[in-house]
Amino acid sequence: MKRIPVERYWLDHLLATACGVMGAYAVAMSVGGTTLPMVLALGVLLAGIAGYGLSLVFEDTAVSKADGWLFAAGAIAGILKVRDINGMLPDDGFPFEIIAATMMFIILVAGGLFAWRDSTLLFTTLPSLVLFGLVGTIDTWRPGLFLFCALILCIALLYARVHQRTMVQWAEEGGADKRYLHRDVWKWVAGPEYAFIAAGSIILFSFLGAPVVQGSLSGVSDVVRINVGQQIRRNFRPQTPNPGPAPDSPIGTGPVSLSDMLIAKVEIPRPMYLRREIYENYTRRGWSAGVTTSQLSEYNFVANEKSLGYARDGEPASERKTPNLEYIPYVFNGEPSIDKLVPTPGAVVEIDSIDLVPVETPATSLLYKTSNGIPRLRAVVAVPIEAEITAKATIPEDVMPAGESERYLRYPNIKATPVSSPTNTEGKSDYQILFELKTSIAQLCKYNTQTLPVPTGRDPVEYFLTESKEGYCDLFASAFAVEARRMGYPTRYVTGYLMEPSQKQADGTYHILEKHSHAWAEVYFEGYGWLPFDATEGAIDITPKDDEKESNTFLGKLQSFASENAAIITAVIAGLTLAAVYRLVRSRVEPPGDGTDQGGNRARLRALRQFINRFQVSMERVSGSPKRFSQTLREFAEIHQNGLLPIAEDTEFFIPVIERAMFSENGIPDEELAALNARLSDLEKRAKVLQKERLRAAHKSKRTA
Question: Distance between CA atoms of 413 and 659, rounded to whole angstroms?
Fold first, then answer.
């Protein structure tokens, strides 16, 4: 019968493979991969196709029964090499924090190859669910929600088909005719409708209920927020489609969304830029650190008689030939984090404690390998004096050899942009010319953190200045650094945190949040060192507000409509549910056929159901236990065999009769049904007597106890 599948075929393998493809693709997109999503999806797809072919080759052989062992062996062998496999994946694979995604990918590939039977085929859906759990945790790729809905439907259909096949197999083993399994109990037990109703309900309530839950828990979530997605984006450096080696700091990779998570509390006389990392080489995909300055170096402190307990033993590199410096107190109280890097506004010259030897980065930030995971620093730092600067923007040879400073002047061979040729520079200082360059970029381009990624094969700076004219801080800073180099000025790209007066709290400290992460450019001036130039200053901010971003999305519009029409939607859902239940009940009552003698068939089926219900009630009275909805009469009789001993002869007689009637074409003839009703009436009388005796004995036993 076509309505109930009795054979496993390509559709089942396709459903299982589709689940794996969606899970692998979604988790790779969530970590910002470009090539990785397609490679993982293609790998799972090819494994599923190969596995279906192998299932046909080994069908009805002893090898097919060993598919579970082959599946397990392949998965274990792959997981033991998970780091090697992760390193072979494009986009540098997955960050170590979620290397479980690579494990699930390995399991999916092994399952695609060796899942040849229903039991192993169902198991392959579990890694897909785990992958979508990671997608929900990272929460950076919104379309993953819709893929998850598709996953639920695929799993529901696959489970329904497998369950139906299992029920058909059991029915045939019991002597039933599979052509009539759509009737009564077998359709209720084996039908796929409830799987789809359950899946649809989960999806529907997820869309409608999620905004309510999110709103009610927003206060709690702000307190205990753990931004896994941002941590992954910080450590994971996705590969852009452009050729060449992967940059240390890619730019123009797509929308950013930073949280209000507290990074540190800072004490400092005035707001300043806090450096974390610096980059010198522009690779047309992003920025990379130079070979020389990428080395970390430890330095020593000696006893100090000045403001703090220890002074630096030796002159900091940033102070060399740089007399125009001032020394300011700086306190950094970081929050518990896996990040041990302490950003600073300048080189540390004094420090209050050297319990742990600090390591200085090229950006003059400090790396503390703290045991408690809480970076702390109380120090005095050297920063350039804020004054009118008339010095040259160049690196003297007595500060840095020409061969070494050359790397700060290299720029890519890109076409001229609207800010490439400054006008009226005569009589102006280098600082004034660079300030005008910064202003020109801010006037030309708009600031928008939701800007889409730079197209494949395009130089980010060229595309930003000539076409999109819209981006966020990494593109503004890169554009300034590249264009200033084109004009002959030494620049570098810097990442860290932006400080503003609005961040100052009542206790005098500045709160640094994750959303204050920033990028800017710096230019070297004789006698001052590296000075910051932030091209985002003065740029018009066109970033959509949170409510605008949500309301402009399909999901936001759907949630808004749902909240405004909750009563109508509830009524419609309730009505459709009742209609669906009524239709299901009616469909189970109506017999198959061409419509002839439909009234007679209905009457016989009604009589048969009444007969079955009376027999079931009699068994329940004698055994003292109700029959579960999913149980057949035979299963109930076998489970309660001891309790049904007084009517064992009757159960052995009636159950085969009922099964033949349920799964035969004509049911029970009227004349036979009359004789059966007479015997059943006698059974009902004896069942009532036995029930009373059982209850009386139980009551007596309770009193004596």
Answer: 84
